[in-house]
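thought: fold this chain, then report.
action: predict
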Amino acid sequence: MKKILLFLVLCIFTLGLVACINHSTAPKIKQAGDKISVVATIFPLYDFARAVAGDKVELSILLKAGAEIHSFEPTPADIIKIQNADLLLYIGGANEVWMQRILDSLGNKTPSNLKLIDTVQVLEEEVVEGMESHEENDQDSLEEIELDEHIWTAPANAVLMVNAIALALAEIDKENAAFYRANAAAYCEQLEDLDKQFQEVVDSARRKILVFGDRFPFRYFAAAYGLEYRAAFPGCSTDTEPAARTIAYLIDIVKEYEIPYIYYIELSNENVARSVCEQTGAKRLLFHSCQQISRDDFNAAATYVSLMRQNVENLRKGLN
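observation:
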């Protein structure tokens, strides 16, 4: 039944994917044998495109490994790269408002682009009990609906994104369309296997709650598997040092539920997780959001799938 529902969802989204590909100008004419230029803003999009396109495209990423994503500012060289791209891949969330400004400024030189947040069912960012938010005293901000942009953290969403990327590539580079479709199908099998592994871990788990001494960019992941969570900050927060009451709340939760592991995300200073662990005896454990990776991981050819497989094992530890 799950596979039938997934198939139906894929069919519905596929019908709408062409509308998501924005051709503000006519696609550039590709000569036989030429590689098209594809630019991705962040790692998951880069990695999905790499899996689908292989060596058929010139692929580049704007946000370099190890860079701080919340303070990223595009350089003039980045803007030129965007302008010259045959296809631009971006999420389109709050962290990428700068991209929309660039695209608006390019006028008739805007490249074909795919806004991936339009390919999935979007959820609002959530502030759960005990979580610290820099907006909690800002009434205007509280009245605004902020969409959670970390759409790739659920493997089922990654399937939709990969199929959207394959369709966009095939439309621009018809010569290699069959190649892109075949690669996407093979890659989606890996993503569906990941989804199955996560579900099996959750189904057999002793507990259904995660505690993050960090930001929580896993709204889609938690929703996909019916998991409860507590964390220091929402996923899009730029804060790193919570108030004492936030740490005290997390300590109480860990003790109440006898949580064995406190999670932190990649490139974190781990300060909050470390503080909670010192007071509870729990251990720290990485749960990778795949939004950004370290230089070492990038040089070691880490992929979305390899990082998420590590998450499978770390989820198993945290829930048992």
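thought: worth noting. Residues 1-19, 136-142 have pLDDT under 50 and may be disordered.
final: tokens above.
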